[in-house]
Amino acid sequence: MSPQLYEFHLPLSPEELLKSGGVNQYVVQEVLSIRHLPSHLKAFQAAFLARGPLAMLEHFDTIYSILHHFRSIDPGLKEDTLEFLIKVVSRHSQELPTILDNTALSVSDRSAHLNALKMNCYALIRLLESFETLTSQTSLMDLDLGRKGRKARAKSVHGFDWEEERQPILQLLTQLLQLDIRHLWNHSVIEEEFISLVTGCCYRLLENPTISHQKNRPTREAVTRLLGVALTRYNHMLSATVKIIQMLQHFEHLASVLVASVSLWATDYGMKSIVGEIAREIGQKCPQELSRDPSGAKGFATFLTELAERVPAILMSSMGILLDHLDGENYMMRNAVLAAMAEMVLQVLNGDQLEAVARDTRDQFLDTLQAHGHDVNSFVRSRVLQLFTRIVQQKALPLTRFQPVVALAVGRLADKSVLVCKNAIQLLASFLANNPFSCKLSDTDLAGPLQKETQKLQEMRAQRRAAAISTELDPEEEWEAMLPELKATLQQLLKLRREGDGMPEEIAEKETAKEVEGRIRQLLAKASYRQAIMLTREAIGHFQESQPFCHMDPEDSEETQFLTLLGTIFKGPEAPTQKKTPQGAVENLGPEETGCEDKSEPEKRKENDELVKQEMLVQYLQDAYSFSLKITEAIGIISKMMYEHTTTVVQEVIEFFVMVFQFGVPQALFGVRRMLPLIWSKEPGVREAVLNAYRQLYLNPKGDSARARAQTLIHNLSLLLVDASVGTIQCLEEILCEFVQKDELKPAVTQVLWERATEKVPCSPLERCSSVMLLGMMARGKPEIVGSNLDTLVSIGLDEKFPPDYRLAQQVCQAVTNISDRRKPSLGKRHPPFRLPQEHCLFERLREMVTKGIVHPDPLWIPFKEAAVTLIYQLAEGPEAICAQMLQGCAKQALEKLEEKNNPQEAPKDTPMLPTFLLMNLLSLAGDVALQQLVHLEQAVSGELCRRRVLQEEQEHKTKDPKEKNTSSEATMEEEMGLVGATADDTEAELIRGICELELLDGKQTLAAFVPLLLKVCNNPGLYSNPELSAAASLALGKFCMISATFCDSQLRLLFTMLEKSSLPIVRSNLMIATGDLAIRFPNLVDPWTPHLYARLRDPAQQVRRTAGLVMTHLILKDMVKVKGQVSEMAVLLIDPAPQIAALAKNFFNELSHKGNAIYNLLPDIISRLSAPEGGVDEEPFHTIMKQLLSYITKDKQTESLVEKLCQRFRTARTERQHRDLAYCVSQLPLTERGLRKMLDNFDCFGDKLSDESIFSAFLSVVGKLRRGAKPEGKAVIDEFEQKLRACHTRGLDAVEEPETGRGGSQRAPSAKKQSSLSRHRHLISAASDNDFVTPEPRRATCRRPNTQQQVSKKKLRIVFSSDESSEEELSAEMTEDETPKKTTPIRRASTHRHRS
Q1: Pick from 1276, 1288, 1280: which is nearest to 1252 by CA?
Q2: CA pair distance 867, 815, nearest whole angstrom
Q3: For residues 495 and 503, what is the distance between their CA atoms, to the nearest angstrom?
Q4: Rounded to two decimals, what is the model's pTM?
Q5: What distance in Å separates the CA atoms of residue 794 and residue 813, rounded to the nearest whole number?
Q6: Planar angle of CA 482, 483, 487, nearest 5 degrees
Q7: What's the CA gap between 538 and 532, in Å, rounded?
Q8: DSSP string of 1293-1315?
Q9: What is the torsion angle, in degrees rounded to the nearest 10, for the CA atoms of residue 425, residue 427, residue 430 and residue 436?
Q10: Rounded CA gap, 41 and 28, in Å?
């Protein structure tokens, strides 16, 4: 066919070009074979050199054949074809401007160029798509290869990097479309297929997942420009909108790419309407459909969010269309719309100069954001808080919104979602960092100024109201009010004038009648009636011809004339402010007497401005005060989250308290101290967060010099030590140790501390003591800090001054103790431990201070003595000798005091008396020495024996003959050495045990001499009734019992008697700690006394309950005591009125929940004990306890088993209260469909109890929970269960059982009436008749069970709980005789189907 006679139609598919179409439609004549393609391509190239781009008209079949065989031809041919087609299209685009400008162009030439243009573009674009398809498939095949492997393979396949070739092609097509090519078509209307061809390749490129990679950025930009030209010049808007929506639904990677393109089209290309079109399409999407299409919703949500960040002003006009998605089910779409609103608030609706419409829009957006802070989905709530955080950080939140948004954040702190809590803390931290009020937010500091300024404002408003009232009063009414008093004054003056009395008012010479009239009016207004009347009388005589004094009716009486004249003056037509007040009269009036009617306009304006300023000041202070109160409230909530949430939340809490502390909130110090124990956290992130917090707060103080900064640092750390507990000091010591080891504390800090300790710089005794304490803490990290100045430290704290400073001496002892390693020596250590000789001055001074101080009643001597004994055993060679001398010296002094008291002249019948404090000190010292001697033997001596043995074995091994070494194999030798080592360890342990049992408390030892005295004090509390002495004696007895099992066994009854019967809480608390230690050291001895330990959990004293809770927590979690039914006493602590004890109990159960099925196994016993009529708890506390405990049941199997057990317990429950408790427990379990089936199987157990409203409500709540996440197939079971519940509630159990009995023929359960009668006579039934009471078999299981099982089921089994499946010995130890039920009716089951759960 001649090129001039045909017309090329762009096909929808390549196969259409092979079919014969309409008249003059181009058809491919022949698809060339692969071997002929190179030659025909060369012919095409030659023709192109001769004819230019029109050569395509004759050689299109060649290019079509190459496209047809694209997968099979040689890569070099593909590359040559692509390069050649780029030249053809480029040449054509260069020639077209001249051709288009040629007005004399013939129709045939125009048609030829049009066909060539379409052919060239079609060929180039199809070749581009072929390369793109092949590359995508190759990349999918090479996913497992490395990055280099994929690239190498791509190059080997194509011979070039295709990703670098796409951009020039797209630029060429863009250049072509920018020409005015529409003149090539008839009527200058370009066919839609041509635009679709060009833009289709762009969308095909965008579908490639790698298009979003950074390396493909030039390609993305080229695609954007090409589509931008199509939009602006070729009316591609509708098609682009539809295509973008489709791609967002199916390609997740395209959201960011399309956002960049759309925002560029809207700004640089002026196509703002495309934003509205896309928003309209998204807004019209059905929310229900999006909830079923999460990938499409995610694409739309990402697109809207990022588009709002780029062009918020353009998108804002379309927000009304998107609001429907806020009510949809898909949370991602809600997040996207809310994020778009936030961006508009940040970028468009920000500032104080907004118009009223914009301000209303901003307020609506903020209202919507606040409302969704309570969204049902936690991700939406979290997103809202994140958006508000950004708004606050960029200071775009109006001040009027501060209080409600802060309240929202504080409320979200109690959210169940960890993510929401974390973002709420971040929002509050942003509020603090960007608050407009003050850098110091102390509500106590703000309360004073607020009260003062509020009072001032009230006074100003009162003055304003008084002035306003006086100006607004009708003169006639005011005259009527003053007339009676004025008349009485006038009558009195007239009477006095007749008698010749009265002082006339003088009128100045230059005063006019008007001025005098004004004076009279002022006097009347001030209620100075006497002066007004006298001045009026003078004016009548002075101004006889002037108004109004000349109009006097002579017929009236004098009184009437005066009253008429005064009325005329006061009620005159002229306004009072128009009168001019004489200067002298004004000076006589006070400021409060001067009405505002005499003030000029500037003065009024100034007063108004002052009032407005005062109102603004009060409002500012009120906002600041309310803000600080909210922050204080948040501190209390956030501090509780420090130990209850995940690592990320704990880190946020720590950062929050750092910021709050920097803003000077007084309660922040509580949080800073509370975070200290987190230094022991096993989570590295939490530990590092605590270290970073203390770095920020304390290691970077302000100061001009290193010394000034060191002094500030020491001062801040010393504040932490004020009233600090032992635990707080240990935590701070660990932190300082970490800082010292990393050299983060400057040398200037150590220098200043030593200067304060040695009093080279003036400081108070407490500051000196804190300096020594800090030096001791730092010595943990670097022992040489104290070790190199040991003599200096001894001279500081242990000098011979009187009275001695025991507090400082105690800190010196603890600081010196830190230079040695307190841990037991490990086998790897070959060097001997660091110890000082007995003759060292340190021990001499300690012995002397302890011995001399025992006779003085100083309360600080006891903690010093304890630290001194610890130090001696830690550092001295032969510490037992030093302490024996110390004990002997103290005992000698006590005897001397006793002899002094026993005067020979007194009657011999009087018993000698010893001061109470001296006896207390002596027993306390003996107890400390006893305990430290035990620790010394168990750790230091045992470790040293082991070290010497290992050294000896190594030495013997080295001296052995080489032949002897080879006699046995290496494995055999290692085994023998292991056995020898184990035997040696046992021998050493037996040696230490023998010393403790046989020698330490033997009559020949020093400690044994104190045992009779100690036992006498403990056995005679009436004789030795001093509380401090009793406490010291009980603690010393516990320490002595730690030494020997024999001595402990003989004194256990005394210990537990004192623990139970002592009237002193401090004694009971001390003995609780002592018996806890004994339970670890001698568990077999203490085990029979375990119920007495549990009993202290209900002690009336808060201090004892807290101590008992701590001790039992350690014993139970370390498996040192058997967890029995008494653990319910720990559960009762969950409702303890003391928050610390309740928190302790909660922490105990948190830890216990990590120990397998411990809580699950204990729950039945806990429920029985807590709901028992005797010894249980009230109903509301029971609910609180069980809600906490049942929250630990998370496994489905545990839930199902527990449901069955609880349902069965309805049979054995004796009271209605127990029925309600069981129903409540069932309602708190996380039930599943299988759990519901368990309830249906055991419906007979509780069906007759449903008439009780609270039980019925509890089971209905179970139905409500099950419906929330129920599957369609499970809803039928739920409906059936609910129908049975309602039927039993309204008509009783018989109403639902009668039809079923008739249908299935199964045996009916006893009716509610019969059941109640059985329960009433339960005590009359003997144990032998238990078989008569049989639990009915569930009907569901019965109808499906084979006959063989029914026969087996005749063997009745007793229902038991896992907690009951223990040995008889455990059961007998679990309950006392009075707690054990005397007559019970065990429930028998008729089947073994569920014999164990």
Answers
A1: 1288
A2: 10
A3: 14
A4: 0.67
A5: 9
A6: 125
A7: 10
A8: HHHHHHHHHHHH-PPPPPPHHHH
A9: -120
A10: 16
Query: Cis bond leading into 548, ω under 30°?
Result: yes
Residue (of 1049, 1191, 1173, 1063) closest to 644 by Cα position: 1191
Given the DSSP bridges, would you call strands 1357-1358 and 1388-1389 parallel, antiparallel or unpaired? antiparallel
Model confidence pLDDT, tens digit, residues 41-75? 888 888 888 888 888 888 888 888 888 888 888 88
Contact 1000, 1044 (CB under 8 A): yes
Report the length, in residues, of the chain: 1397
Query: If phi over 0 gives left and psi between -120 and 50 gives alpha, with beta otherwise, what is residue 27?
Result: beta
Query: Strand, helix or coil at 1188?
Result: helix
Between CA 1041 and CA 1044 the distance in angstroms is 6
Nearest to 926 by CA among 865, 1000, 1010, 853: 1010
CB 139 within 8 A of CB 162: no
> Which residue reads 């409906």 in tokens?
1279
**3-state SS track over 844-878:** HHHHHHHHHHCCCCCCCHHHHHHHHHHHHHHHECC
What does the block give as tokens for 1253? Answer: 């409203």
Q: Which of 543-547, 1243-1247, 1315-1319 has the highest mean pLDDT?
A: 1243-1247
Which H helix or E strand runs over 1264? helix 1253-1268
CA 193 to chain centre: 59
- Separation in Å, CA 121 to CA 26, 45, 81, 116: 16, 17, 14, 8
Measured CA to CA, the distance from residue 907 to residue 928 in angstroms comes to 37
Spatial distance between the Cα atoms of 592 and 955, rounded to a whole number of angstroms: 106
* Closest alpha carbon to 115 in 175, 26, 20, 15: 26
List the structure tokens of 315.
């998108």
Both tokens of residue 509?
């010479």
CA-CA distance, 1339 to 1397, in Å (whole number)? 20
Query: Are the CB atoms for 1163 and 1189 separated by under 8 Å?
Result: yes
What whole-number distance in Å separates Cα of residue 656 and Cα of residue 639?
A: 10
User: Residue 1383: phi, psi to the nearest 5?
Assistant: -130, 120
> Is residue 68 a contact partner of residue 36, using CB atoms and an 8 Å limit?
no
Sorted by sequence, the CB contacts under 8 Å of residue 1130 that are 6+ apart come out as 1097, 1109, 1112, 1113, 1116, 1145, 1148, 1149
Q: Which helix (DSSP H) or strand (DSSP E) does residue 541 occupy?
A: helix 529-542
What single-letter DSSP state applies at residue 1230? -
544: tokens are 């006889």
Task: Round the average pLDDT of the chain to a whole number and report it.
Answer: 77
Strands 1388-1389 and 1334-1335: parallel
Tell me the helix, strand and coil percentages in the chain, rounded to 5. 75, 0, 25
Return the minimum-mean-pLDDT range out of 443-447, 455-459, 923-927, 1085-1089: 443-447
* Cα dihedral 1160, 1165, 1166, 1167 sign: positive
The helix/strand/coil state of 562 is helix
Q: Sign of the C-alpha dihedral, residues 32, 38, 43, 47?
A: positive
How many CB atoms neighbour CB 571 within 10 A?
Answer: 13
pLDDT tens digit sequence for 519-531: 887 888 777 878 8
In order of 825, 863, 978, 1119, the CA distances from 930 in angstroms are 22, 16, 34, 27
Give the end-to-end CA distance of the chain in Å, rounded to a whole number: 89
Are 689 and 681 a contacting pair, CB within 8 Å?
Answer: no
Output the pLDDT for position 894: 84
- Give the model confidence (pLDDT) of 563-580 as tens digits: 888 888 877 754 444 333
The pLDDT value recorded for residue 1283 is: 86
